[in-house]
Amino acid sequence: MADLTTNFLGISSPNPFWLASAPPTDKEYNVRRAFEAGWGGVVWKTLGEAGPPVVNVNGPRYGAIYGADRRLLGLNNIELITDRPLEVNLEEMARVKADYPDRALIASIMVPCEEAAWKAILPRVAETGADGIELNFGCPHGMSERGMGSAVGQVPEYIEMVTRWCKQYYDRPVIVKLTPNITDVRKPAAAARNGGADAVSLINTINSITTVNLDTMSPEPSIDGKGSHGGYCGPAVKPIALSMVSEIARAQETAGMPISGIGGVTTWRDAAEFMALGCGNVQVCTAAMTYGFKVVQEMIAGLSQWMDEKGYESTSDFVGMAVPNVTDWQYLNLNYVAKAKISQDDCIKCGRCYAACEDTSHQAIAMSEGRVFEVIDEECVACNLCVDVCPVENCITMVQMQPGEVDPRTGETVQPDYANWTMHPNNPAAQAAE
Ligand SMILES: Cc1cc2nc3c(=O)[nH]c(=O)nc-3n(C[C@H](O)[C@H](O)[C@H](O)COP(=O)(O)O)c2cc1C
C-alpha cells in the first residue's frame, strides 16, 4: 500500500490533504471533526489582532456559479478573517494540537504591517504548539482596504519585510500565502524567499463579482442593495492556481522552494496534479464547504489507489514530476501532428462538434445522412474544440499521427524524431541558427 505520509517543512502529517484557512477551520469543534474524518492537517482560520475590530456583514456573504446540474463550480465570499477573540482561538488551537499530535496544525496570521504587531502575536502563537505559521497576504476584500491581506501581497517589498520579522521572532516554519491578484506571481514568491520564508502557499481567492441582480441592479451577495467584490475559489479557479504554481516551480529565483497547493482541489486527481507540478501537499476549502469533511476519505482512497497502480511508494516519488514538461510556447514541437477521431459507437448524434467546427473552427467535420459525423483529415488541425464541446467523454479523441505518415492537410511527412523537430521562429535556437 502506498504511504501517504508527507513531511512538509519537517511537519509530518498522515496524508497530504490539509484544510485551508477558512470557515472549516474556524474553531475547535470543526477542526476536531475534520481530524476525526481523516484530514492530515489544518491551517486555522486567520487570526488577527491590533487592528480595528473584525465585524462581518449580517447578510449573505457567499455567492456561487453553478454548472448545468447545479453543481457548485465557483464560490465567492466577502468574509473577513476570524471574528472570534484571539485568546479563544489560541486556547482551542493548543487543546487540539495536544490531542492530535500526529496532525499538522498551522496558524494563519494577519496583523497590521508593523513590526510591533507581529512581534506581539508570534510568541503567543508559538505557545499553542502550532507546527508553523502561514502569513495571510492574500485576502482581497475587507482587510486589504485596511492595508492588510492582498494589499501586502501585492507589494513584494512588504512581503519580504514582514516575512523577515516573522523569521526573526518565530522559530518554526513560516509559509507565505500568496494572492493571485497580481500580474506576475513569481515576484511575490521571490520576495517571500528573500525574506527567509520556508515555503509559499497559493492561491488565495481571486477578486470577483459573481452575479448582478437585474431587478435591484446590485451585485450579489447583496447587503441592503449594495455589493462589493469578493474572493473567488472552488473548481473554477484550479486552472489559474495550477498555472501560478507551475510558474513558481519553474522560476530560477524560487526553484526548489516548497509549495503548498491551493485552489479548487475537489478530488484526489486535482491534488495529484498540484503535486505533480511541485506541491508538497495541498490545501482544500470549497470542496469541504460543499461536501463536508468526509470528502477527504475519497481523496485518500483515490490517491492511494492511483499511487499503487503507478508503483509510487510515497508522495515524494511523483512530486514535481510534471514540472520539466511545462515549457514556454515557442518550445513546443511543431512536428507533432494529431487528428480528431469520432467513435461512431459512442456518438449520440447531437451535432455539437459539427456546429462548433463548421461555424467557428476549421470546417473539418462532415455531417452525412442519418446524422453521421466524421472528421475530414484534410482540414483537421487538431484544435481540440470538438473534444471540448462533445458531451460524451472519450467519444472524440485526438490520435497522434505516426512518423512516416503523410499529413493529408499539409502534404508533409510526419518527422521521425525530436532531432528533426521544427522549431517555432520565436524559439531562440531557431533565431540563432538563422
Ligand atoms: C468563506 C471563505 C473564507 C476564507 N477565509 C480565509 C482566511 O481567513 N484566510 C485565508 O488565508 N484564506 C481564506 N480563504 C481562502 C481559502 O483558504 C483558499 O485559499 C481558497 O478558498 C481557495 O481554495 P478552494 O478553491 O479549495 O476553496 C477563505 C475562503 C472562503 C471560501
From TrEMBL:
Enzyme Commission number(s): 1.3.1.1
Residue ranges of domain 4Fe-4S ferredoxin-type in the record: 338-370, 371-401
GO terms for MF: dihydropyrimidine dehydrogenase (NAD+) activity; iron-sulfur cluster binding; metal ion binding
Pfam families: DHO_dh, Fer4_21
InterPro entries assigned to the protein according to its UniProt record, in alphabetical order: 4Fe4S_Fe-S-bd, 4Fe4S_Fe_S_CS, Aldolase_TIM, Dihydroorotate_DH_cat
Catalytic activity, reaction form: 5,6-dihydrouracil + NAD(+) = uracil + NADH + H(+); 5,6-dihydrothymine + NAD(+) = thymine + NADH + H(+)
Example of a GO cellular component annotation carried by this entry: cytoplasm
Keywords: Iron, Iron-sulfur, Metal-binding, Oxidoreductase
Family classification: Belongs to the dihydropyrimidine dehydrogenase family.
Purpose of the protein: Involved in pyrimidine base degradation. Catalyzes physiologically the reduction of uracil to 5,6-dihydrouracil (DHU) by using NADH as a specific cosubstrate. It also catalyzes the reverse reaction and the reduction of thymine to 5,6-dihydrothymine (DHT).
Assembly, per entry: Heterotetramer of 2 PreA and 2 PreT subunits.
Protein name stated in the entry: dihydrouracil dehydrogenase (NAD(+))
Taxonomic source organism: Sedimentitalea nanhaiensis
